[in-house]
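Structure ticket #2291
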Amino acid sequence: MLHLIFLGAPGAGKGTQAVRLMADYGISHVSTGDIFRDNIKKGTELGKKAKEYMDKGELVPDELVIDLIKGRLLQDDCKKGFVLDGFPRTVPQAEALSVFFKEVGWDDYRVIDLIVERNVLIRRLSGRRVCRSCSAVYHVVGKPPARYGFCDFCGGELYQRSDDNEETVTNRLEVYARETKPLTDYYKKLGILYQIDGMMEFEDVYEAIEDAIEA
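Resolution: structure written out below.
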């Protein structure tokens, strides 16, 4: 089984690389952001609470996240392995996850940290657009749709997520630097952290991830 944790600031490319790994290795892509957005769309109580934090670019509190993640990783589609994207985001979350992994016998896992400069992250995120229907992701400069404002795959309307405007993006990066970056020290001590230049070409980043998997 392949168990991976992706670290990296918002916009570092975690989701894009995770989708490729999912296709090539037959594992699941577990994104806390997607889980929360699904709950927000369905209007669940968890979704309503999460939205208050996400719209401000702040982290969703641990108590709303940890049990949800545990349940998700134990679902059948994760039996062959998974890429965990967006969790943990704090050292207490990482510690709780480490305990959980030991409880279920997942001792062999790796942590991939994608490193991207701040100005590049702001440009990537503020230009991101998402399809309302199928959630396909575009960028106004780097990956524009063939028809402005509409998805190439399903024709759905493209929109800018409320947490992708420049002011919120800046706050998200500040939150990441303050609360999430200490995770690198935590995982370095465990000897399972692999730091990769996320500004390389997509294929080069992917090859570096595969090298870490085989290490």
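Closing remark: DSSP finds nine helices and eight strands in the chain.
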